[in-house]
Amino acid sequence: MKAYFSILLILLVGPMTVAQTKTNIPETLDIKAIWLEKWANSKLYLLEIAETMPEDGYDFKPSPRQMSFQEQLLHIQQNMHWLGTTYFSEETYTKVDATTLSKQQLLEALSERFDLVAKQVQATSNEKLSETVDFFAGPKNRLQMLQLLQDHVTHHRGQLIVYLNLKDLSPPRYVGW
After folding, report:
1. SS (H, E, C) 41-89
2. Widest CA span of the chain, in angstroms?
3. Which of 22, 100, 128, 170 is 20 to 30 A from 85 via CA?
4. Distance of CA 23 to the CA centre of its chain
C-alpha cells in the first residue's frame, strides 16, 4: 500500500514540478535565422559529398532499382526548386531537365539552388511562415515546409554517403549544425 501511495504521489506531483521548472529557451526565437544557419551548413556538407565522388562515379547505382549518384543530386536540386518556388515565392514552378549537366555544372546548380532557397526564405515574413498551404500530404504551414526542405536533403545525403562508402571513398566529416 505504501508503494502504491508513493507512485500515486509521483504521478500527481511530478508534472507540477516539471511545469514549474524554468527553461533556458528564449521566449522569442528567430526561427528563420536558426534554419538559415543550418541550411548554409547543409549546403556545404552536400557539396563536399558531391565533390568527393569522381565524375566517372556519378552514374554509380548500388542496385538497378536505385537512383544513380547523379540522379540523387538532381532529385535534391529539383525538390529544392519545387518547394522553394511553390511555397516561398510568387513564381510558378517549372521542372527543368538537368540530366546532361557535368559534375561541375551540377555542383554549381546545387549551390545556386541552396542560395536561392535561402533568399526566398529570408524574404518570407514570420507571419507568412505560420500560414497554412495546400500540400499533397495535407494542409501544412510554411514552417513545416522548411522542415521538409531540410529533411529531404538530409535523407538523400545519407544515401549518397552510402554510395561513397560502397565505392570505398571516405565521406567528409559530418557537419550537424
Report:
1. HHHHHHHHHHHHCCHHHCCCCCCCCCCCHHHHHHHHHHHHHHHHHHHHC
2. 75
3. 100
4. 27
Question: What is d(CA 106, CA 10) in angstroms, rounded to the nearest whole number?
Answer: 58
Q: How far apart are CA 69 and CA 124, in angstroms?
A: 32
The packing angle between helices 69-88 and 103-122, to 10°, is 20
**What single-letter amino acid sits at 43?**
K
d(CA 110, CA 105): 9
Q: Give the type of residue at 171.
A: P
Residues 112-122 as b or e (16 or more Cβ within 10 Å = b): ebbebbbebbe
Question: Which cell is 89 given?
Answer: 515565392
Q: Give residue-wise pLDDT tens across range 72-127.
A: 999 999 999 999 999 999 888 888 887 889 999 999 999 999 999 999 999 999 88
For residue 154, give the H/E element and its range.
helix 142-166
User: Model-level pTM?
Assistant: 0.81
CB-CB contact of 141 with 41 (8 Å)? no
Cell of 165: 562508402
| Cell matching residue 162 | 552510402
